[in-house]
Specification:
The complex is a heterodimer of chains A (189) and B (169). Chain A folds into two domains: 83 residues, Orthogonal Bundle (Rna Polymerase Sigma Factor, Chain: A); 93 residues, Orthogonal Bundle (Arc Repressor Mutant, subunit A). Helices cover 74% and strands 0% of the residues of chain A. The chains are: A mainly alpha (189), B mainly alpha (169).
């Protein structure tokens, strides 16, 4: 139901229309997934947390007053659930080496690493980003959201969101280059 | 502007978000520096890698089914929890107790009278129980029914409200 507004879908879902709830979930699935992933990283917990997010949305729809946008509300639920899950688990994170970011020479990541390894390194590099940058990047690329939609969900001005995305990319590049340089120098020894 | 300043502008340049003056400066830098072009190329590749991560998003269908299943299950469990909650059980017991008392009022009263005579006990407590039972056995059927029905309905209503609140939460 692409023509229906969020409000229409919420109203119908509250009347017990399962399809309306399904449409809502499909509409915001990539957003919720991106938010949870940005907090938990590439973890087995993501899907469980996402289920909890949808259950909270399902139960909370009746209490959703429409004072904020639905996307903002879902973003908050997803973020809180993911943060709670992260608190429950061990204080594990990227190693310090992964997040130290001196500038390095540019390289060609695909030429250096195989696709799977590259994927793993991308995840590690993403985990090393500052949370706001990571969140903005995940929503932009994994969530396929426009800057306006991200700004709405995160409750920030569009300019700030753009800055987060650009700085996030710059930081990501530095992390990857840094790792590449370090491995190249270790290989040369 | 130094190299780091230009570097920071490259993602925005690729996004077409720079103003005319900034764009001209970045393009001039790109023209004169191999490293700048290499850097731009890497940002392009990075964009590709970030877009590729989109493939990792699982389909929503599985989640919807799981959520529906879990919601129905948890709703059923919550109803069961609520149904077997203390107020519900108390109201049920109260209703059974009232009904039993009413139906067997005469034998119970007779048994108490006999028990008191046999034991010769005359304590205040027993006397009070006896009076209550006598009162019950002599009271109007409809009054007793109304009192018990009222009590039962009141407790059931409060239980229902609790159930409704459970379901809403």
């Amino acid at each position: 139901m692409p023509g229906e507004t969020d409000r229409d879908l919420v109203t119908k879902a509250l009347q017990g229309n399962q399809k309306a709830f399904r449409d809502l979930v499909e509409r915001y699935h990539s957003t919720a997934y991106a938010v949870v992933r940005s907090v938990l990283g590439d973890s087995n917990e993501v899907e469980d947390v996402l289920q909890n997010v949808y259950i909270k949305i399902y139960r909370g729809l009746a209490g959703f007053r429409g004072e904020s946008r639905l996307s903002t509300w879902i973003y908050q639920i997803a973020r809180n659930e993911a943060i709670n899950a992260a608190r429950r688990r061990r204080p594990e994170g990227p190693s310090v080496d992964d997040v130290v970011l001196p500038a390095g020479e540019a390289g060609n990541p695909e030429a250096v690493y195989g696709q799977r390894e590259l994927g793993r390194r991308m995840e590690a590099a993403m985990a090393g980003l500052e949370e706001n940058y990571r969140m903005a990047l995940e929503l932009r690329y994994m969530g396929e959201r426009s800057y306006e939609e991200i700004a709405e969900a995160m409750g920030l001005p569009i300019g700030t969101v753009k800055t987060y995305v650009y700085r996030g990319k710059a930081q990501l590049k530095k992390i990857l280059v840094r790792r590449h340089d370090r491995e190249a120098s270790e290989g040369a020894r | 502007m130094n190299r780091d300043d230009f570097e920071e502008l490259l993602p925005a340049y690729l996004d077409g978000a720079l103003n005319a003056e900034q764009t001209a400066r970045v393009e001039a830098w790109l023209e004169r520096s191999d490293g700048a072009r290499e850097s731009l190329d890497m940002y392009r590749r990075l964009d590709g890698l970030l877009e590729k991560r989109r493939e990792q998003v699982p389909p929503a269908d599985g989640f919807i089914e799981a959520v529906t299943r879990r919601s129905v299950l948890s709703r059923a469990r919550r109803v069961m929890d609520a149904a077997f909650s203390f107020p519900a059980i108390s109201s049920l017991l109260l209703a059974i107790f009232g009904f039993t008392l009413f139906v067997y009022r005469e034998p119970i009263t007779a048994w108490f009278n006999r028990a008191q005579q046999l034991s010769g006990a005359n304590s205040q407590g027993l006397e009070w129980v006896r009076k209550v039972l006598l009162q019950f056995s002599g009271a109007d059927v409809w009054t007793l029914t109304a009192v018990y029905a009222g009590l039962t309905v009141a407790i059931l209503l409060s239980t229902s409200l609790m159930v409704m609140r459970f379901l809403r939460d």
